[in-house]
Design brief:
The strands form two sheets. This protein has a seven-stranded mixed sheet, with helices on both faces. A two-stranded antiparallel sheet has the order 1-2. The two termini are 32 Å apart. It contains 14 helices and nine strands. The chain is α/β, with parallel strands linked by helices. It is globular and about 60 Å long. The chain binds adenosine-5'-diphosphate and magnesium ion.
Length: 313
């Protein structure tokens, strides 16, 4: 069982009403008729379980996408893990069925979800055929599962390179067995151009590249994008690339300059939403907390990009 609180995997009726652009009283009536039970007021403290939110969202005509999305960037510290964690949890709150896969041996995503156990099976055990993918899946909360990582995955790249089997399929092939259970499969990766990340790309329908206004950010982004283009060509893939601007600071020139450069260079690929910098986010992943348990202003930013990821806006 995870350390998540109700605020981190359930949604309030008032948040759901805001998303559906419906009057809260109207949503309450509708929800009561769909769920067949009376709901309490006030609506901002009436929590819906993911399955309940799902039934209401589906009744409004929304459809959940079925996608494998990886978050990649060869630079560390660009908010890959923070973004995977918060977008995945928020998507589950909206009723999506989410599987997180941690493929970074630093295992920050696993820690954030309360899984810190070196003896648990991880991806390298699947590749070496010691475990089945089903045995690696941990239940976190309703609608949220995790295949954790640990330092044991640090040999994964070497294992892939020495393998006689088709290493390029080492993520995609096992996933095919359990993919039907989820809407979104979100893969967090290590900051590297590696065989593991190539196998992740081959399994991805979409790759999100977070970029933050740091020295070398633009260079790193260009290098990563050109690597992805090569993989796309070599393996005849058709995944899409999206760039997510993170740690945007409206008071700093560097943020405006990089944003401008990204708009000019990658217009169609830049996500509409972006993430502002906030001191409340610092170390949130390390402390095992998602943003949805606090009052951070960045919560609204992750809410927006989650809807964008779900195709809900
Ligand atoms: N919007 C933000 N504002 C301020 N700090 C952030 C923000 N997003 C992430 N951080 C911090 O930046 C650091 C790196 O984030 P992390 O998600 O671990 O990056 P990565 O996975 O790319 O290495 C962490 O300390 C995290 O708390
Ligand atoms: Mg990380």
């Amino acid at each position: 069982m995870s350390t998540l609180t109700q605020q981190e995997f359930c949604i309030t009726l008032s948040d759901l009403a805001a998303f559906l652009e419906m009057n809260p009283a109207e949503v309450k009536k509708k929800a009561e008729s769909i769920l067949g039970k009376k709901l309490k007021t006030p609506l901002h403290s009436t929590w819906l379980m993911p399955e309940e939110a799902r039934r209401i969202v589906l009744a409004q005509g929304y459809k959940y996408p079925k996608k494998v999305i990886s978050i990649q960037m060869l630079k560390g510290g660009v908010a890959k893990t923070t973004s995977v964690l918060n977008m995945g949890l928020r998507a589950a709150m909206y009723g999506a069925r989410v599987l997180f896969i941690d493929l970074d041996q630093q295992a920050n995503l696993s820690f954030a979800l309360g899984v810190e156990d070196e003896s648990l099976p991880v991806w390298v055990d699947i590749v070496e055929k010691k475990k089945s993918i089903e045995e690696c899946v941990r239940f976190i909360e309703p609608h949220v599962d995790l295949i954790p990582s640990s330092l044991n995955n640090s040999v994964l790249d070497r294992v892939l390179m020495n393998s006689n089997r088709n290493w390029a399929q080492a993520v995609k092939a096992p996933l095919e067995k359990i993919q039907h259970r989820y809407d979104l499969i979100l893969i967090d990766t290590a900051p590297a151009l590696s065989a593991t990340n190539t196998a992740v790309t081959i399994a991805s329908d979409e790759v999100i590249l977070p970029v933050n206004p740091d020295k070398f950010a633009f260079l790193g982004l260009q290098k990563n994008l050109s690597e992805l283009e090569d993989i796309k060509e070599d393996f005849e893939l058709s995944f899409t690339n999206k760039i997510l601007f993170t740690k945007f600071d409206g008071r700093e020139n560097a943020s405006h300059e990089l944003l401008q450069k990204c708009i000019e260079s990658f217009e169609g690929h830049l996500m509409k939403g972006y993430i502002r910098t906030s001191s409340e986010v610092k170390n949130s992943v390390r402390s095992g907390k998602s943003l949805f348990s606090g009052k951070s202003s960045v919560k609204a930013d992750y809410d927006f990009v989650t809807r964008e990821m779900l195709g809900f806006c």
